[in-house]
Design goal:
The structure holds two protein chains of two kinds.
Chain A lengths: L3 E6 L5 H7 L3 H9 L1 E5 L11 E7 L5 H13 E7 H6 L11 H8 L23 E3 L6 H12 L11 H8 L4 H5 L15 H4 L16 H10 L4 H8 L7 H16 L1
Parallel strand pairs in A: 1-2, 1-3, 3-4, 4-5
Chain B lengths: L7 E4 L1 H13 L3 E8 L2 E7 L9 E6 L2 E6 L16 H4 L3 E9 L5 E4 L8 E6 L1 H15 L6 H8 L2 E5 L10 H4 L11 E6 L6 E6 L2 H8 L4 E2 L2 H15 L11 H6 L6 H8 L5 H5 L6 E7 L5 E8 L9 E2 L2 E2 L4 H20 L9 H4 L7 H10 L9
Parallel strand pairs in B: 2-8, 8-9, 9-10
Antiparallel strand pairs in B: 1-11, 1-12, 2-3, 4-5, 6-7, 6-14, 10-11, 13-14, 15-16
Classes of the chains: A alpha/beta, B alpha+beta.
């Protein structure tokens, strides 16, 4: 019997699920190895649990989400969370630094209809997660590796070093050193293949913090290169704002800005 | 350097073009400096027109900029961002492939890709020294690396004696430059004492001599040879950095608990740029590229860095958890224990680790800081 695969969506943009569909040829190879039992983005047909591998996209932002992620865990042998939302709370975790009621009052005509939690959190804040795959969106090659690894009962080979290693491997000249462009590469988790620096832009940190970061030293370098505290807060508060290292960075910059 | 005989020639710019043509005619792909993305890069070229004419560089800690020179020098810059190791020891190499046959037996295919025949044009003395270090690492051991050894056997090296060291250079400290002394097929000195540059070309090997003798060019005069020597003599006086190497391995070994390691750990990002830019760093990781059905797989070797958390992961955890331990491991290996392992320094003084560190950590300053209070770090690691 083939292993049963389920793909779940929580608070997210669906981009990471689309990465799975975007695998095209390789998706057929994967489909040949598993029974795609629950994947509403691809098919309305649903096969009841339990599931061998559950892939979770999105963050937990409602009371209903909290219940549902626990149910996913109960029904699943392995749970893998994918993307910035499911590993760090996503862009919607910007509420964690503010008052969500103030946000809803500005955005919605009838904020009283909105029932949302004060904080956006990754599934790992609520249940045990077997593997977290980073990225906004995730890289399809990495997703295939994670699925393949779980199919064959081994640890996924996902490098956790910095984006700089990817830049150097592909021969991209460091935009920070050669052009003075601020770049989050030195503190950002590899995985995208260092796309932005290859197009003369600094890294935006889409894959969240690398395995080892030295935020005070890195922030010092960005400040010395002329980045204001205001901008420092903004560069670290994007898709992975709630990831601990990036949170530390933006909080420190905000405190420095307040002192001014 | 050879005497004023027929084996050392004086060429003009057109003469350099004939050298490139002669090398290509012998079946080599010429890899040489060219300008790409605001930096010098070593890339395949077919003509001297691709060389960076009138281009210089300014290098300092965490800083690299090209600048316009006031002459037409083709080799008027120091070490490029990416070293030649990219060609001899590529960032990713498929080592073998495996598949399962209908009986479930694993079949291995170790056939290597076709070996490219490279001619490196513009190899600086420090970089040549780095290639000679890799010869010991990859080709000198009892189990030579097949990819490296095959590429190295086919390699033709045209060294350019350095007349333009940068602010991060310290080859004189490491005894590797600025004049290349061994290991090249042709050695070139660029002379800028006339309206257009001239090139004094010497042979360093039988293959180089054969090529040189095929060229129709006039021999270098005694004055040419003196001018060529002066180029590197002047370069010697313009090193941006200095590293005191006397007793260096022992000095580091008796300071394994020196407070400077904490100091540098507070600045180091552990991003791995120094190791990637270094022309001698050779660490790698092997990964499996497995098909989803598990029937085929390829073993791929990729550049890796000892600054990554996972690099020292073994069953049960990571050996070097702290940045302090990783920086210390890297530097004491590069400058110290490399001697025990390979009979040479791992550092050639090219300065890349200084320029390409995003926070400008300077290996010469770190070593000097420890030496300045030698003994404060007694203890074993």
């Amino acid at each position: 019997m083939q292993p049963k695969l389920a793909v779940w969506k929580f608070s997210s943009c669906d981009g990471c699920q689309l990465t799975l569909l975007d695998c095209e040829d390789e998706l057929l190879e994967v489909a040949g190895q598993v029974e795609i039992a629950y994947f509403l983005e691809a098919s309305r047909a649903v096969v009841a649990g339990p599931y061998d591998l559950s892939i979770v996209e999105g963050s937990i932002t409602t009371a209903d989400d909290v219940e549902r992620i626990r149910e996913v865990r109960r029904m699943s042998r392995h749970v893998v969370s994918i993307g910035a939302c499911a590993t760090a709370g996503g862009i919607q975790a910007l509420r964690n630094f503010a008052d969500v009621r103030e946000f809803t009052s500005v955005v919605y005509a009838h904020p009283e209809y909105i029932h949302t939690l004060d904080r956006s959190t990754p599934p790992s804040a609520h249940i045990d997660i077997d593997f977290e795959l980073h990225g906004c969106p995730i890289d399809k090659g990495q997703l295939l590796e994670v699925i393949t690894a779980f199919l064959h009962g081994r640890r996924p080979q996902i490098a956790s070093h910095s984006v700089c290693v990817e830049c150097k491997r592909r021969g991209t000249v460091c935009v920070m050193v050669s052009k003075g462009i601020p770049c989050l590469g030195p503190v950002t988790h590899a995985g995208c293949g260092a796309i932005c620096p290859a197009f003369n832009r600094g890294c935006y940190g889409c894959f969240g913090p690398a395995d080892t970061t030295n935020i005070p030293a890195f922030v010092g370098a960005l400040s010395a290169a002329g980045m204001s505290d205001f901008d420092l807060v903004r560069v670290f508060r994007t898709f992975n704002a709630e990831a601990p290292a990036f949170r530390e960075a933006s909080m420190a910059a905000e405190a420095a800005e307040d002192r001014r | 350097m050879a005497g004023p005989s027929g084996t050392t020639l004086a060429l003009d710019g057109d003469g350099l073009e004939t050298v490139i043509a002669a090398v290509r005619q012998r079946g080599y792909t010429v890899i040489a400096p060219t300008v790409r993305d605001g930096a010098v890069a070593y890339e395949p070229i077919t003509s001297a027109a691709a060389l960076p004419r009138g281009v210089g560089d300014e290098q300092g800690p965490a800083r690299y900029r090209l600048r316009e020179r006031d002459d037409d020098a083709l080799f008027g810059f120091a070490a490029a961002p990416s070293s030649w190791k990219r060609y001899l020891y590529p960032p990713a190499t498929t080592l073998w492939r495996a598949r399962r046959d209908e009986h479930g037996t694993l079949l291995f295919d170790e056939s290597a890709a076709a070996v490219p025949r490279y001619a490196f044009l513009g190899v600086r003395a420090c970089e040549l020294a780095a290639i000679l270090v890799h010869d010991r690492v990859f080709a000198g051991a009892a189990h030579p690396d097949p990819t490296y050894a095959a590429r190295r056997r086919e390699l033709f090296i045209i060294a350019v004696h350095c007349g333009s060291p940068s602010g991060v250079c310290f080859c004189t400290s490491m005894g590797t430059g600025p004049r290349a002394r061994e290991g090249f097929d042709l050695g070139i000195t660029e002379l800028l004492d006339t309206a257009t540059p001239r090139y004094i070309v010497e042979a360093g090997s039988p293959a180089g001599l054969e090529l040189l003798e095929s060229l129709a060019a006039s021999p270098a005069t005694v004055q040419d040879l003196e001018a060529a020597q002066a180029v590197t003599d002047v370069a010697t006086e313009h090193m941006g950095r200095h590293l005191e190497t006397g007793g260096l391995p022992e000095m580091l070994q008796r300071n394994l608990e020196h407070p400077q390691w904490d100091d540098v750990a507070a600045r180091c990002l552990s991003c791995g740029n120094c190791t990637m830019a270094c022309p001698t760093c050779f660490c790698s990781d092997d990964v499996e590229a497995q098909a989803p059905d598990g029937e085929t797989s390829a073993r791929v070797r990729e550049w890796a860095s000892c600054f990554s958390h996972d690099f020292s992961y073994i069953h049960g955890g990571t050996v070097r958890e702290t940045v302090r331990s990783r920086y210390r491991q890297w530097m004491t290996h590069k400058l110290g224990t490399w001697w025990e392992q390979f009979g040479t320094s791992g550092c050639v003084g090219c300065g890349r680790c200084i320029a390409w560190c995003p926070v400008g950590i300077d290996i010469t300053e770190e070593a000097a800081a420890i030496r300045a209070s030698d003994g404060r770090g007694r203890g074993s690691a």
